[in-house]
Amino acid sequence: SLLYLQEPSNKRVRPLARVTSLANLISPVRNGAVRRFGQTIQSFALRGDSKSPGCAQKSCSRSAAPTPPKRRNSVLWSEMLDVNMKESLSTKEIKRQEAIYEMSRGEQDLIEDLKLARKAYHDPMLKLSIMSEEELTHIFGDLDSYIPLHEDLLASLGEATKPDGTVEQIGPILVKWLPRLHAYKGYCSNQLAAKALLDQKKQDRRVQDFLQRCLESPFSRKLDLWSFLDIPRSRLVKYPLLLKEILRHTPKDHPDIQILEEAISIIQGVLSDINLKKGESECQYYIDKLEYLDEKQKDPRIEGSKALLCHGELKNKNGHKLYVFLFQDILVLTRPVTRNERQAYQVYRQPIPVQELLLEDLQDGDVKMGGSFRGAFGNSDKAKNIFRVRFQDPSPGQSHTLQANDVFHKQQWVNCIRTAIAPFQRSAAAAELKELPELSEESEENNPSVPNITAQKRQSATSGVTEMELDDSVSECGSMVDSEESKGVKSHRTSSGHRKTREKQLSGKRKETLV
User: For residues 247 and 257, is the Cβ–Cβ distance under 8 A?
Assistant: First the structure.
């Protein structure tokens, strides 16, 4: 206080509250230990500021600290070259070396992130008993086992690098190493369950507080825990792009050309296997969460499903939220429920087998919505983004008018359903077309005056089958499917009636012949 009295009255004094942390008083240094110490001081200072009742809210805001960048500072390979060395290389070769260096640098970053996930998240949460060891194992998987895998590739690339920084041939290294990525099958398959458990644990105040403090720390680069856990998957899908980039800048007469093409084929096969395994795991994950109100709802096609084509939230005609699953062979409508803080799905009505599924693409305003659905949109608004699914056989009496959030999601659902039902429609159409020539031959015997009609029918039937088999784009022929749905029942009845009449005529002829 004596010092304060001796100060001139006209001197501006900087309020102490503006100093957000003691770490700001420490000059930047390269020493990692001192930097970590500064971060620790900053963390404690922020805790103290948040508890201080006298400081201004704006001054104590945590956003006052400098925001660290989300990405690392990257340096191009060409920027590290000597001027004379750079002039001796062609532009194409420089781009090739840039692509190889990008792959090498990406491996190094991945290794650092995997180690960071263990040291900054897994180990502290285990030591502080924020999560149990079993829960952490379920969330983190075998991350430690993948660090040596990528270190081996990084070491091989380092050995292949010449003193001038160039790599002559990378193909043999990749062909030998890429098949080892099959090790990620288990990790990627467990991601859905791991994410669900992590989201559940975030409801715990201690977990939430720990993750928030990590997010605000410089080491996280503003990435949350799941971003670190998802880095291996995002790295996997980059390998084909990196290899194609290297191949694009490799001269035609280079020995790497054929080997790189083989490497691209290998990584695409690995990713295909991982995706297949992940799809099966995701499918089983949701099957295990289904709850049945009636034994009749249980269908062996649900338990036997290996692929989940589409799933998501839709609204029914009454405005109630449904969660719909389109498995490979059956459509299941459910109501999301919570059981012991865990998500479950209660099966709603009778599941519709894809073979018996009929889709109607409805236009905006085609259907008058009633109940709470009308209130949700207002009397002046028309129902938009709607479509209808039902059994082909009207006897079950089940029809579901569903609404998506927007046009994009509606089109996704319509395309997925059309893709699922297309094989069954082709087989049914092919079966009907195969029967037509036999009937036309019989009518030709009875009416010799119409031989040209028979040939035309036979020709149109053959071309129809060919078009059905070659048409793989379901979205293009979707309108044709919808327009023919309403005519399907009538045409079926008419054709069956003609068949019965012809069968009677034929049976009568046979009887006369026998007599």
Answer: yes
The pTM of the whole model exceeds 0.70: no
* CA 178 – CA 263 distance, rounded (Å): 7
Rounded Cα distance between 484 and 4, Å, is 91
State the Cα–Cα distance between residues 226 and 84, nearest whole angstrom. 45
Which of 196, 195, 328, 188 has the alpha carbon at shortest distance from 272? 188
Beta strand 342-347 with 290-291 is parallel
Q: How many CB atoms lie within 10 A of CB 34?
A: 13
Radius of gyration from C-alpha coordinates of the chain: 34
Profile the chain (515 residues) by mean pLDDT over runs of 10 residues: 43 44 38 40 38 38 43 62 67 87 92 92 93 93 90 92 86 94 93 92 92 90 91 94 93 91 96 93 93 91 91 90 94 90 88 91 74 46 84 77 91 93 75 50 37 43 38 38 41 46 46 33
The strand pairing partners of 327, in sequence order, are 308
Q: What residue ranges define each of the domains in the chain, with the CATH number in brackets?
A: 73-286 (1.20.900.10), 293-371+381-428 (2.30.29.30)
Tokens of 8: 């001139």
Task: Give the relative orientation of helices 451-470 and 407-446 as an angle to the nearest 10 degrees.
Answer: 150
